[in-house]
Specification:
The complex is a heterodimer. Chain A is an alpha+beta fold. Chain A contains 22 helices and 22 strands. The N terminus of chain A is likely disordered. Chain B has one domain. In chain B, helix 4 runs parallel beside helix 17 and helix 10 packs across helix 12. The chains are: A alpha+beta, B mainly alpha. At the A-B interface, helix 7, helix 15, helix 20 and helix 22 of A face helix 14, helix 15 and helix 18 of B.
Chain lengths: ~700, ~575
């Protein structure tokens, strides 16, 4: 689903669909949703009646052609606004369609349930008939029919259909990586899956409905803005209707077309016409970032975040700890230490163990060995001790009697000292040095004599520091959550540049932290994938679950990240902010435009009876008729010209709120005052050619 | 710098220097901290509370505040209606002034109740001393106290906390009167007595001039009246000629004192907000926004008045004193021009010269001052009006920085926007609707019957205009603007003491007083209940010049957008024609 981000805004088929929809949306029932555009529609109808009235012999309203042109421009204004919304919807639908491809009906191998017992009898049913609680199996080569949770087995799965990532991932029952998504493909092995969503209710289905605009509800900010715009519209209804008696007093007859034109120019049609397009495209941008939001409100809330909780592992650091160094003990050699470490880790399937083997083998090629000295390590392994929390060590016994152990320094120290050997001061020094640098020291011993220390380090992701810096400038505080001890946590926190950390964190610590911040009035976001994250995800204002996470986590959060990329929140925050900014700046622009429109239309209305007002015709427009036409033409064409801005959003730069306000006030406020002066004048020059 | 200009600059700077400490004092009074006036007034207040069985420690929520405010105002209204309708037989009427007609009494009591003082009568012949002192002067005190108490409720609500309890209304109200208005009034009245303003309950004095003519000179308890008239930004004069009258404003010094008195509390309330909420920087930003607005209006007016009337210049007559038509020699054109803008940006509405005779630019700027109505504004209510614009600016600004709008740590949501928008809408609605009706009637020269009869007894609507054309339009526009801004000054030149104008402006007055009090108190009350959000680097900072600019732009654009066509037909046309 990694779609090309450079998609043209105006793709041919999208535009065609949008044009069709622009006419369908002229239905007053539909227009009623936007008070601003609804009043424009009423104005358009009035102009239509005026045209008919003139045809039937009315003379005081000006020429038929002039009135018809005004009617057509108003109609165009409506169509442009509809087009903006329709185009945003069409883009959403195109997104949805590409998502839908993954939702096509696939045959599912449903397991029949006989009472409480599974009979391993498999029925092939269409995926749409699977309901929550059903079980199905998938074997290598099968497409997973719907979202679910693995209850049995382990499999490699190709999730490229939804994440765009071609490397297969492993999903297995139990633990936090048990979730599978419909539309993905099993590459190996066989899994038994429990269906977790009803047909048509999966996240993808919800998102499709949202981007299609079907279930789009206005967000709180959008409602407040609609009130503001409705307020402005009312002001101008008052201004234009009271103008009639004023003009009568000044003995200046004003034709209906002039009232309607003045009114349509003054009400904030620019933002009114683009408002819903901005909202839809916000959802659309979230989807393009491969984030599925449960509601538009969630995206908007993301823009307000104050605190972000991140797991250390996989977010700030790359996966798990890695071996980075071997330190030999006095009296032992480095190759000896490496060999022993490899041996003790060979059967250790943990990422740490694997990394020791990997680093060891790499270093051995740099330290060629004299063969016979190390023959002792080639003996057969007779006994293997796995790591346990109690012993906090692991190791192997070899057939020739060599016993290798590896583990936390205090545990190993005890072993060494129990055997009557000394745990040298130098070793303690190395251990302390490694710990102070944020690493984890593992001491390796052979027959209770210390060979040396293996250093395991967290690898901080490249570029993460800059991302946190960016978040800080946005006003978002980052908090690292880790199970490490406070010393290590502090070191990594400092190195990665997070603002705070929770060390030795248990799930309830996360909850407590979120509650504490929320009690102080802050909005908290949290990313998580495990079932034990679910309460915290639900408690957080924005809970982003990894798509690979458990169903419980996905249910609890209000967004799902299809890419499983925890730093995605930065993009989500930016999308939220962009959404609000685009509305704010276009509102400012729209209202600032009115200044120039007044200077065009007011002199035009009164100039015949009050010639002195010629002096406020600062643009020296050609004639009253051309002034009015130019103003409403400008008013109409500014809408399509701003569609790209509405759909892409105003660029967000984390430069602090005050600088941002200055910048936007200058560009959209001052720009909004000046642009129409130039625009109306230019249009007037053209219009004058035809008059 | 000419001494006249120096005069107004000194006036302005002196006010600022007095306003900052007064602001600190006011914030202490509302915050319940000890102040030196405790010695004198605490026992008196305790007595008041005991007699009226009010527990000043009982905290009210915003709804209870509004109920208390509206109830007490209703009682006052009936009391003053009673005074005005029965003054002929009530005591203290040495000049035997008659009872007011019901429509004039309705207009007068409302207009004093709402701190407007649109006077469609003349003090000398229209009211008794009893009505002046126990009716009108009483309302001048309590209406100012009401506005200040409402502002105190908003201050309380804006302090960083989440609470329903916003203090006790009666406590705020009484303290506004006893601790702030009363001591200052005593000082100002005393200065006036020394300057020659009468303070007596004796009736008209009769004297014989050198030529042997008999003259009747009205007098009364003027000094006391003048003090609260300005301090409470009421503006209703004891005499018909208001502060142009030689008894009411005898000297250049008394003019300065009155000028300072009317701007003082509007300034101080802004600083009081800063001290009370510990947002001093923000208070200065607000004050600067107001001051920039004031300067934008006052400088062109000063300029126009100094340069005089171009028609007179065309006749070859030099005007060394500037445009002196309708102005007092002892004040000169500059102090008068400064006053005319000050009295309109603040909702005082007292006059020391004839507004009708100012140049069109000055007239337009007076109108604009009242249309915006919060470049300082009236005592208490000026801040409340300003607060509405701040909410609108915060909303637009908040969106522009990509964050749900918040002010002082409280979110601005749909409900607050709805209230703010209604309040912002009502002002242009009342002004434009009123003017539209009057213009329609005048344009069609409608027979008004009982509603209007001119001096000759004719009932044609155009009869209420002494000046046809643009200037006449300005007069009607001014009358409704002055009413809706609760200002009370008149452009004059309009025959306005008749049922049509009395009743219609009375209705406008009622709406335009109480809605802009109810709205901001409700918004602040709703905000106070919300969770406090701490500031982050993504928060829109309000105590900056940029935000100040935004507030200013919002005010100017809303006022300009709503009123530009009306102004174009009135003062702008007149101005364009003149030059």
């Amino acid at each position: 689903m990694k779609r090309d981000r450079k998609d043209g805004l105006f793709k041919k088929e999208l535009v065609f669909e949008a044009i069709k929809q622009s006419f369908v949306k002229l239905n007053p029932k539909y227009q009623f949703r936007s008070p601003v555009m609804f009043t424009v529609e009423i104005g358009t109808f009035v102009m239509m009646f005026v045209c008919v009235w003139i045809l039937s012999g009315e003379h005081s309203q000006g020429s038929f052609a002039y009135n018809l042109i005004i009617f057509l421009i108003l109609l165009a204004t409506l169509l442009f606004a509809n087009f903006a919304e329709a185009l945003a919807e069409a883009r959403g639908k195109a997104q949805a369609a590409s998502l839908r491809k993954t939702r096509q009906d696939t045959p599912a191998k449903k397991i029949a349930l006989l009472g409480e017992i599974f009979v391993n009898e498999i029925h092939i049913v269409p995926s749409s008939q699977l309901v929550k609680g059903d079980y199905f199996v998938c074997e290598a080569g099968d497409i997973i029919p719907t979202d679910g949770e693995i209850v049995e087995g382990i499999a490699t799965i190709d999730e490229s259909a939804i994440t765009g990532e071609s490397a297969p991932v492993i999903r297995e029952s139990g633990g936090d990586k048990s979730s599978v998504t419909g539309g993905t493909k099993v590459l190996s092995d066989k899994i038994k899956v429990k269906v977790t969503t009803e047909p048509g209710e999966s996240f993808l289905d919800k998102m499709i409905a949202l981007v299609e605009g079907a279930s789009r509800q206005k967000t709180p900010n959008e409602i407040a803005l609609t009130i503001l715009l409705a307020g402005f519209t009312l002001v101008f209804i008052i201004v234009c209707t009271t103008l009639q008696p004023f003009a009568a007093y000044a003995k200046t007859p004003i034709p209906i077309s002039a009232y309607i034109s003045l009114f349509v120019c003054l009400i904030p049609t620019t933002i009114g016409g683009l408002l819903s397009a901005i909202g839809i495209s916000g959802m659309d941008r979230a989807l393009r970032a491969n984030v599925i939001a449960k509601s538009g409100k969630a995206v908007e809330t993301a823009g307000d975040l104050d605190v972000l909780l991140l797991d250390k592992t996989g977010t700030i650091t790359i996966g798990n700890r890695k071996a980075t160094n071997f330190y030999e003990a006095p009296g032992a050699t480095l190759p000896e230490l490496i060999h022993a470490s490899i041996l003790s880790s060979n059967s250790d399937a943990t990422p740490e163990g694997k990394s020791i083997v990997e680093l060891g083998k790499k270093m051995l090629t740099e330290h060629p060995l004299t063969a016979n000295k190390f023959d002792k390590y080639k003996a057969e392994v007779t006994y293997q001790i796995n790591f346990t929390a109690e012993t906090r060590s692991s190791g192997v016994d070899l057939a020739n009697g060599i016993k290798i152990r590896k583990g936390a320094s205090d545990a190993v120290k005890k072993m060494v000292e129990n055997a009557g050997n000394t745990f040298q001061q130098e070793i303690t020094d190395i251990v302390n040095k490694v710990a102070a640098n944020g690493g984890t020291p593992l001491v390796v011993i052979e027959n209770n004599k210390v060979l040396g220390v293996v250093e395991l380090q967290d690898i901080i992701k490249t570029g993460i520091h800059e991302r946190f810096e960016r978040l800080r400038k946005m006003g978002v505080k980052t908090v690292m959550v880790t199970g490490d001890n406070p010393l290590t946590a502090k070191y990594i926190a400092g190195k990665a540049g997070v603002d705070d950390y929770i060390a030795e964190a248990k799930p309830e610590d996360k909850m407590a932290y979120i509650r504490k911040e929320q009690a102080a009035g802050k909005l908290v976001a949290m990313m998580g994938d495990g079932t034990n994250d679910a309460p915290a995800l639900a408690q957080a204002d924005v809970g982003v679950a990894m798509n690979s996470g458990t169903a419980a986590a996905k249910e609890a959060g209000n967004m799902v990240d299809l890419d499983n990329d925890p730093t995605k929140l930065i993009e989500i925050v930016e999308i939220g902010k962009q959404l609000l900014m685009t509305r704010g700046t276009l509102t400012t622009f729209s209202i600032a435009n009115d200044v120039a429109k007044y200077f065009a239309i007011v002199p035009a209305l009164f100039i015949t009876s009050i010639p002195a007002l010629q002096r406020i015709n600062v643009m020296s427009l050609h004639s009253p008729a051309s002034a009015i036409l130019s103003a409403i033409i400008f008013n109409a064409i500014i809408i399509p010209m701003l569609i790209p801005l509405a759909l892409k959003g105003v660029a967000y730069k984390p430069i602090g709120a005050s600088a941002l306000l200055r910048r936007n006030l200058l560009v959209y406020g001052l720009g909004g005052v000046l642009v129409p002066f130039i625009g109306i004048k230019l249009i007037d020059v053209v219009v004058a050619l035809f008059m | 710098m000419s001494p006249q200009i120096l005069g107004v600059v000194v006036m302005f700077i002196a006010t600022l220097f007095l306003a900052v400490p007064l602001g600190r004092y006011i914030s202490k009074v509302y915050g319940g901290q000890g102040v030196w006036t405790d010695l004198i007034f605490k026992p008196i207040e305790r007595l008041f509370f005991k007699v009226s069985r009010i527990d000043p420690a009982r905290e009210m929520n915003w709804k209870q505040h509004l109920v208390a405010l509206l109830t007490i105002n209703l009682v006052w209204f009936f009391w003053v209606m009673f005074c005005l309708l029965n003054q002929s037989w009530l005591p203290m009427n040495p000049d035997h002034n008659p009872n007011m007609t019901p429509d004039l009494a309705w207009n007068t009591s409302i207009s004093f109740l709402v701190n407007c003082n649109l006077q469609q009568y003349s003090g000398e012949t229209g009211v008794s001393y009893f009505s002046q002192v126990f009716g009108l002067m009483f309302l001048q005190f309590v209406s100012a106290g009401t506005g200040m108490a409402a502002a105190a409720v908003v201050f309380n609500a804006l302090r960083d906390k989440t609470s329903e309890h916003l203090g006790n209304f009666y406590n705020y109200f009484l303290k506004s009167c006893t601790r702030i208005l009363l001591p200052l009034c005593m000082l100002i009245a005393t200065i006036h007595v020394f300057e020659g303003t009468p303070m007596t309950f004796k009736g008209i004095d009769t004297l014989t001039s050198v030529q042997g003519d008999t003259m009747h000179v009205s007098r009364g308890p003027v000094a006391a009246f003048v003090a609260i008239k300005h301090l409470g930004t009421n503006g209703g004069g004891f005499f018909g000629a208001n502060s142009a009258h030689p008894f009411e404003n005898p000297t250049y010094l008394s003019n300065i004192v009155q000028m300072i008195a009317q701007i003082l509390i509007p300034f101080a309330m802004v600083f009081a907000f800063g001290f009370y909420c510990n947002k001093k920087r923000l208070a200065w930003v607000f004050w600067c926004v107001m001051t920039v607005g004031f300067l934008v209006l006052v400088i062109p007016a000063l300029n126009a008045e100094i340069n005089g009337n171009p028609y007179i210049t065309q006749m070859g007559i030099s005007q060394p004193g500037g445009n002196m038509e309708g102005k007092e020699i002892r004040f000169g054109s500059i102090a008068s021009a400064f006053w005319c803008i000050a009295t309109t940006v603040i909702s005082t509405g007292s006059v020391n010269s004839m507004h009708d005779s100012f140049m069109p630019v000055s007239g337009m700027n007076m109108l604009l001052g009242m249309m915006v109505n919060s470049f300082y504004g009236g005592v208490g209510v000026g801040f409340l009006n300003f607060f509405i614009y701040v909410i609108l600016a915060v909303f637009i600004g908040g969106l522009m920085v990509g964050r749900t709008p918040e002010f002082l740590g409280k979110k601005i949501e749909a409900r607050e926007m709805k209230i703010a928008m209604i309040i912002a809408l009502f002002h242009p609605f009342l002004i434009l609707l009123g003017t539209a009706i009057a213009s329609y009637l005048a344009a069609h020269d409608t027979n008004m019957g009982w509603w209007f009869a001119d001096a000759a007894g004719k009932h044609n609507a155009s009869g209420w205009l002494n000046n046809p054309s643009y200037h006449g339009f300005s007069e009607m526009l001014y009358q409704y603007t002055s009413s809706s801004a609760n200002n009370g000054s008149g452009f004059e030149g309009l025959a306005d003491n008749n049922p049509f104008w009395n009743i219609s402006t009375g209705i406008v007055l009622l709406f335009s007083r109480f809605l802009p009090i109810i709205g901001p108190v409700a918004i602040a009350g709703l905000m106070a209940q919300k969770k406090f959000i701490p500031v982050s680097s993504g928060t829109l900072k309000t105590d900056t010049g940029t935000f100040g600019l935004l507030v200013f732009a919002v005010k100017v654009i809303i006022a300009a957008l709503a009123f530009f066509p009306a102004l174009a037909l009135g003062p702008i046309s007149e101005w364009m024609k003149m030059h």
